[in-house]
Amino acid sequence: MTAVLFLALAILAALPLALAALRSRVDSTEDAAKDLALYKKQHEGVTRDLDRGVISSDEADRMRVDISRRILAADNAIKHQKSARGGMMSPAALAAGLLVVVIGGGAALYWEMGVPGMGDIPRAARIDMAQERYATRPNQAHAESKLPPSPNLNVPADFIELVERLRKAVADRPTDTQGLRLLAQNEARLGNFKAAYETQAQLIAVLGDQATAEDHFTHAALMIEATGGSYVSPEAEQALRATLARDANHEGARFYVGVLLAQNDRPDLAFDHWNFILQRGAADGPWMAPVRENIEELAWRAGEKFTMPPPRGAGLPGPDAAAIANAQTMTDEDRQSMIEGMVERLSDRLATEGGSADEWARLIGALGVLGRTDDARDITTEALATFANNETALAQIRQAAQNAGLQP
Question: Rounded to two decimals, what is the model's pTM?
């Protein structure tokens, strides 16, 4: 049944090309050449996306088959134009040949890269397959063993000597948290990521319940670096989950959990984590740039209707320092009216739609400029509750409150 369906689809795909050839109304050679160049770039793009972990190997194979079919069609269109000009082949002969090439070539590609006899895979089955891939993925040690030897870093001898002394000091005082932190940091600077994450694990064990979300995230990040910087092993995932248990809004942990889910064929779940960073993350945070660079393709894979928003801070609603400064040229009444109108619009939008920490901080600052201290204090309380699990945002809100003249 699958073979019959494939043959029908192949004929339907080739038929318009054959009719066009018979009518001698195909596109010009220049247009066909542009199409061919575009398809070749798409083919190269599939390889890059696969290397970045944006798509799975199965998806890459399916996309390559489709692009290869288009390359065959464009290439044959170019040949048709040349032969038509030279009178070497009639349109009817070219049409017949085109049918043979498209159907035969497509069949060959399908036989080589497809699975004859297998129907479409239901969504539930795909999720089960993704779960199996996730559950059976390589552990940390196996992933590290697949990496080539690290190059020797050009490190000053005196720095290496200092690290050696630090190692000895930590060995003598294995519960010294300051020494463990320093050793983990400096092992990482030397490129000894395995030693670094093992030292970080020792630090977390010493700290126990006092270990922070950032301590656990550092542990995860060092393990990820030890496997090449993009693979999230089960052990690294455990550290990321520990991070999120302490700070559900931690952007770095959400970013790498998104990477993990995308690597294991769950772009739908990965999109939720990355979209959280896009919508609520710090505008100048280290995770914003890679999210903005890759989230559109992730959204496409997830089947999400997605439009990239402008960069955070670009055209941010509400009064900023420049607007308030410009208002100094107005009369007192006009200036007060303008600023209060902007403040009220921003306040209403945050109350109904929510917003970023940048916008909450801006509102607190504007209320402070207007002398509305009680309102600024109320907004601060609301903002602190809104971002209760986001330490970065909390620090920004507290700073805005302090700048507005509120007591800490």
Answer: 0.52
